[in-house]
Structures are given as structure tokens and as C-alpha cells.
């Protein structure tokens, strides 16, 4: 059934080889929107929920060039940015090739 649904929606999760990580807050609408795009593309990702955890937020900021807003998204350990950056990459056709690269 899932294969049919993926085919119907034009998703190809078997092609996604990238390691995707996303730092979020549970109620953040931009976090939800970013996760929806990743889900729509069939991406399995690691989510770090940092609600109220200053240590986790500091770790995120260190990885994200001092950016403390959420979400912060990393693909194959490369900082992508936030939700708007993720959607901009998708619009330009840059997201799928990055997702299809195997993590090194």
C-alpha cells in the first residue's frame, strides 16, 4: 500500500540517501512546514526537539553559524538554513539532487 501511495504522489524515498537533521520546536509553524516538505519527499530525518533546552540550542547555534532561530536544517552535515531556505532550494530544483547524494 505504501509503495502505491508513494508512486501515486510521485515520491521516491528509495532515492533519498542523504543524512537529514532538523532542529525544531514542537509548536513552531515553520518547523512543521519544513518537516511536511521533507515528509512529502519521502525523506527520513533525525529531529532534535530543542524546546526549552538551552544546551541543545547552543549546540544547534554552533553548527548553524550562530543562527538561533528554528528550524535549522542540515543535509549530509551541510547547513541548509531554515524553512524558507529549504523551500527556496526546492523551488530552484537544488533540493532533490542534494537529498539523493549519499552521506559521506
Automatic annotation (TrEMBL):
Swiss-Prot/TrEMBL keywords: Cytoplasm, Disulfide bond, Electron transport, Redox-active center, Transport
InterPro entries hit by this protein: GLR_AS, Glutaredoxin, Glutaredoxin_subgr, GRX_bact, Thioredoxin-like_sf
Matching Pfam families: Glutaredoxin (PF00462)
Domain Glutaredoxin positions: 20-80
Record bears the keyword Glycoprotein: no
GO terms (BP aspect): cell redox homeostasis; cellular response to oxidative stress
Cellular component terms (Gene Ontology): cytoplasm
Alphabetized PANTHER family for the sequence: GLUTAREDOXIN 2, GLUTAREDOXIN-1-RELATED
Family, as annotated: Belongs to the glutaredoxin family.
Name this protein carries in UniProt: Glutaredoxin
Native species: Anabaena cylindrica (strain ATCC 27899 / PCC 7122)
